[in-house]
């Protein structure tokens, strides 16, 4: 154990009570100084000496020979107390001198600093107080200047504002007097022109009156007779429903003219039911915007249907549509002045619209965002040839309550729509029943597949002018309960589309596949099992012949067919006409235009079709005698030219 500083207190007490450090110190000092030859025996002898003398008289140099003892004065009892960590302080003369010197210097420094602080404090407190007072005065003067400056600044700004207001008032006053002066001059000029025009009209009327008076004397008796007869044919005496039916055949302009005849006719033109439907498109070139606004304002609670197709109207005029709270049908197609802002006013004022036609307008995604938010009951929507909205606009149709009641959608000519756009339509309008997409050269099979994934209620599709649709799209539509299909100008539709058509589309009743070059006789054979088919249009399908038509007519479809168009099917002959006359007993409309092999003999077979209403055989090999004979028939309308 090198040191007992960290030893237990009991062990330290044991060492002190038995003088262990002192004994070791005396023995060790004796061995170091004396250096005996036999240290063990030397230690044994010295221990016996210590026992004889006792521990109380033990000194550190007891074991040293007196001749070898150092000539120094003892300052501490033992050096081993420091070795064993039992000493409290080790003091030597050198340390004592250093301690006294340090204590004296420290005492002198302490007293000098105390005197210095006392002496200097008495002098500096006055200066410090004066400095503080000076700083306080400077701060006070600065705060006073700052407050004064802020007050002055506020006053200047207020005065400047008053000056600007006064200047604006003077400008407004000057402008008002200037406009008032201009209006006075304009009124004076207008009065002069109006008076001049009235004078000319009065003079013209006087001349006409003189001419009329000269002729009226000879016709007095005839006019009296006509007036007497007219009293027996007064239309106002008819029932209100009959009068209403008469006026419904007139356009808006004629109704207004009738209202100027007399008071009786005026009252008849004011029937509420007559103004449920207003068509401004028929009088768009002659009617004024002012009249449209007044008409909508007067009949705003009765108007249910409005037609502004092709009307070039002012913003204020279109805004007046928002007053018709009960409006259900609105047609603003081909209106170049229609904007998103106007549609916002209309959507806020007419939330009950069921039919909305926005064809060929400049609407954007802003209008698409309004449709699901305000038109909650919208069922028919036409966006044909609107090319400024994007796929994101179609995604907006799912906002709010969405357009989930939409059953008719027309996207003809919207070539900017991608596959993602059609997928957005499917997510937003899953209840679509009638779908029209004409003039869509960008429409592909993937677009149709993305649409029918969720829109499985479709019963009618029209794809006229979509050349990239193929059999794959036709098969994708098999998940829908189709009843009407219209394709035109498509070369990629083949006989494969009609294979098993009786199982894929058992309820189909209308097939329009004009100008589809890929359709052959096999397609007609596939159509023969259809039991609900009533309309079939295969015009310009030049690969169809007598064999295919025979297979079709042998099936159950021939009994229910009402309309059949085989124009430009050049391979058909009189054999097909004979088969038609035997099987199609309910046929009403038949077209064999440009069927070159149809002759007079074939036309004679058509006599057996008693249900036939219209027949087109222009461009066939029929003689003039047969043409004259058939034209004399009053039962059927024939077209030979």
Polypeptide structure, described:
The protein has 641 residues and is an alpha/beta fold. Among the domains are: 1-68, no CATH class; 241-272, no CATH class; 501-640, Alpha-Beta Horseshoe (Leucine-rich repeat, LRR (right-handed beta-alpha superhelix)). The protein is 49% helix and 8% strand. It contains 24 helices and 15 strands. The protein has helices at residues 9-17, 20-34, 39-53, 80-83, 93-216, 220-230, 240-248, 252-258, 263-268, 289-298, 315-319, 340-349, 365-374, 391-395, 419-428, 445-452, 471-476, 501-504, 521-527, 546-553, 557-560, 574-583, 600-605, 624-631, and strands at 277-279, 305-307, 329-331, 355-357, 380-382, 408-410, 434-436, 460-464, 484-488, 510-514, 535-537, 563-565, 589-591, 614-616, 637-639. It has a 15-stranded parallel beta sheet, with no helix packed on it. β2 (305-307), α11 and β3 (329-331) form a beta-alpha-beta unit. α20 (546-553) runs parallel beside α22. The longest helix is centred in the first third of the chain and has 124 residues, at 93-216. The protein is elongated. 26% of the residues are buried. The model is unreliable at 73-77 and 223-232 (pLDDT under 50).
**CATH architecture label of the domain at 501-640:** Alpha-Beta Horseshoe
Instruction: Say what the CATH topology of the domain at 501-640 is.
Output: Leucine-rich repeat, LRR (right-handed beta-alpha superhelix)
Tell me the radius of gyration: 59 Å
Helix/sheet category: alpha/beta
CATH superfamily of the domain at 501-640: Ribonuclease Inhibitor
Keywords: Leucine-rich repeat, Ubl conjugation pathway
InterPro entries: F-box-like_dom_sf, F-box_dom, FBXL15_LRR, Leu-rich_rpt, Leu-rich_rpt_Cys-con_subtyp, LRR_dom_sf
Protein name: F-box and leucine rich repeat protein 13
Domain F-box: 232-278
